[in-house]
Amino acid sequence: MLTMMGITFREGLNRKVLLISLILAVIFLGLYGTGVHYAAKSFNEHPNPILAAVVYPQLLSFGLYFGGFIVSFLAIFSAVGAISAEIETGIIQAVITKPIRRCDYVWGKFLGLGLFLALYAALFFIVIAMIINVKTGLVLDGQWRALGLFALQPVVLLAVTLFGSVVLPTIANGVVMFMLYAVAVIGGMVEQIGWLISNTGLQQAGIVTSLVMPVDSLYRKIVHLLMRPTDNPINALQQMGPFGSMAEPSVWMVVYALLYVVFFTGLAAYAFGRKDI
Amino acid sequence: MDMAIETFNLTKKYGAKVGCAEICLRVPRGQIFGFLGPNGAGKSTLVKMLVGLLFPTSGKAILLNRALGDTEVRKKIGFLPENFRYHDWLAGQQLLEFHASLYGLSGTAKKRRVSEVLDLVGLAGKEKQKVQTYSKGMRQRAGLACALLPDPDLLFLDEPTSALDPIGRKDVREILVTLKDLGKTIFLNSHLLSEVEMICDAVAFIRQGKIIRQGLLEDLRTSNIEVEMKVGGLTPALTAALSTLASSIEMEDDLVRIRVKQEADIPRLAALVVTGGGYLFEMHRKKSTLEEMFISTTGGGEEIC
Questions:
Q1: Contact at 8 Å (CB) between B142 and B127?
Q2: A92 DSSP 8-state letter
Q3: Do A93 and B71 touch (CB under 8 A)?
Q4: Shortest CB distance from B55 goes to which of A11, A100, A276?
Q5: What proportion of chain A, given as a percentage, has pLDDT over 70?
Q6: H/E stretch holding A199
Q7: Chain A interface, mutation test: which of B53, B54, B95, B148, most A Cβ atoms within 10 Å?
Q8: What ipTM goes with this model?
Q9: pLDDT tens digits for A250-276?
């Protein structure tokens, strides 16, 4: 398993998708840093503490939301052909005929890619948090737990994409995973609107999509950890809009996300163990 | 006799389509075994079942005295797939080190073995190059090196020389013969019949998923012998006498082509000509080539299932 984990991690570092993701990340963080810089400069020149208390957290959640997009895309692109592409090219034939168990092959892939994605996401989070902290002076209380959840987001996508990679051809898997991710994102927004207008149906629709793909609810949990609306009335304003989180997902949603990861990776290992190559 | 491979009614079905049906093979240790058949006959299906890529629908197999599917036994099995593709972003040495790790080799044993197989397949000096810069022949050599890493007791080779030039083919043949001399068993799946003929001890022919003939190459050759004779004074009585020994007979003026089933019939043919009043001017034994055997046994051509 460790051999597979090692080669998968190294492969992740060698893939073109990483280079593209790094370029995108640099462009994104550059633009984001510039935006935050000028916003902070404006508030420094024309102080407005109440407006700043609303805008700065919104800038943070904006950064984390779109940063999560890039990390999620990297997760899907990295894992979409993790197994299926090796079957299609024939690389797998020389690998799984070695004295390794098939489940070790799948778990090794998961651990290698998971480590790579979690590190990438963690680095992304740290850069965003540093930009916000340095430029605006905003103190992020639950940042370490939030970092952990931010790093968990691509791992959740990885687990289900890896399963898809066992049972579907690469292109079909890519289409399904992007649709699933879109369902999670739209579901999250629908749920926010539901809380905003107190519509139970929309709220429940959001909860259901969170169960299908819990990535967005992890993001909402991160936002809550960093900006608690109960602290003061202004913070409630911070949670409004598509990037906010008007209802904090419970800790059980985090537990569910972890079980989701274990379930789909285990299912991938089970399905692969019975698959004809 | 100690068997490297034994299969008992090994069958693979894909729905209604049959990949392999009731395959019963016995390959003794220390042999080079040729597995022959037209495209689509089921050769790769059987190899894939034996190396663990496909799961049999029914039947069983024993490899090196362990049941099919046993992970431990794979430490002594090498496999070169037909469509050899590897992690081509790695350098040759890194690729071999990765595969050596999969075989459980580590530390100095890994380094030593990687160096040995690089020398053996003629890639020494090229190990720092990325595999993606290798020619097709070099990649096939790298694939063979991967298969040889565990110093295997049983080696499955699926078209091992298809991408090699004549010198490369000769090199591989020599490696295989050396391995055989060391007591290794080699299961060779190849279309290059002349090569199979040069190095194999035994062969099996498969057609439409079924083994239709198998045995030692020499036995198969001698079981179908063609003799060409130039005979003077042929009479209907003499022809009838010769026909009693022949499985087939063709005559063209004084030229007689006869197929007999055993070597002992060859001197009997000569005796029949002499005692029957004929004059035997010439007599040649024509050895059946593997290609002739292949075509007569399998019917040749690609199979459409």
A1: no
A2: G
A3: no
A4: A276
A5: 93
A6: none
A7: B53
A8: 0.79
A9: 889 999 999 999 999 999 999 999 999
Please, which residues 145-174 of chain B have a Cβ atom closer than 8 Å to chain A?
Answer: 146
Q: List chain B residues with pLDDT less than 70.
A: 287-288, 296, 299-305
Cα A231 from Cα B286, distance rounded (Å): 100
CA-to-CA distance for A273 and A270, rounded, in angstroms? 5
Q: What are the residues facing B207 on neighbouring strands? A: B210
* Residues A180 and A168: beta-carbon distance below 8 Å: no
Nearest CA in chain A to B142: A94
pLDDT digits 0-9 by tens, A182-226? 999 888 888 888 887 888 888 888 889 889 999 998 998 898 888
B53 contacts A276? CB cut-off 8 A: yes
* pLDDT computed for residue B208 by the predictor: 86
Are B53 and A99 a contacting pair at CB < 8 A? no
Strand B225-232 to B210-216 pairing? unpaired
Rounded Cα gap, residues B243 and B15, in angstroms: 48
Alpha-carbon gap: B161 to the closest alpha carbon of chain A (Å): 17
- Inter-chain residue contact B146 with A100, CB threshold 8 Å: no
Nearest Cβ partner for B74 among A3, A93, A98:
A98
> For residue A159, which of A276, A271, A13, A18 has the smallest C-alpha distance?
A271
Q: Which of B79, B85, B136, B146 best tests the A interface by mutation, with the highest count of A CBs <10 A?
A: B85
Structure tokens at A178: 């992007």
Asked if B84 has any chain A CB less than 8 Å from its own CB, the reply is yes
- Residue A51: pLDDT band (50, 70, 90) is confident
Chain A partners within 8 Å of B85 (Cβ): 89-91, 93-94
Q: Which residues of A touch B52 (CB under 8 A)?
A: 96-97
Residue A93 is nearest to which of B81, B89, B103, comparing CB atoms?
A: B81
Q: B110, A15 in Cβ contact below 8 A?
A: no
Which of B54, B57, B87, B153 should we substitute to test contact with A (largest number of A Cβ atoms within 10 Å)? B87
Tokens 């693979």 sit at which residue?
A: B12
Q: A166 CA to chain B: closest CA distance, Å?
A: 14
Unique residue bearing structure tokens 């899907």: A76
Strand partners, B160: none
Q: Bin B285: left if φ > 0, else alpha if -120 < ψ < 50, else beta.
A: beta
Following DSSP, what letter does each residue of chain B receive, concatenated? Answer: --EEEEEEEEEEEETTEEEEEEE--EEETT-EEEEE--TTSSHHHHHHHHHTSS--SEEEEEETTEETT-TGGGGGEEEE-SS----TTSBHHHHHHHHHHHTT--HHHHHHHHHHHHHHHT-TT-TTSBGGGS-HHHHHHHHHHHHHTT--SEEEEESTTTT--HHHHHHHHHHHHHHHHTT-EEEEE-S-HHHHHHH-SEEEEEETTEEEEEEEHHHHHHTSEEEEEEEES--HHHHHHHHTT-SEEEEETTEEEEEESSTTHHHHHHHHHHHTT-EEEEEEEEPPPHHHHHHHHH-SS----
Prediction pTM value: 0.83
Chain A hits for B80, CB-CB cut-off 8 Å, are: 94
Pairing state between β B185-189 and B32-36: parallel
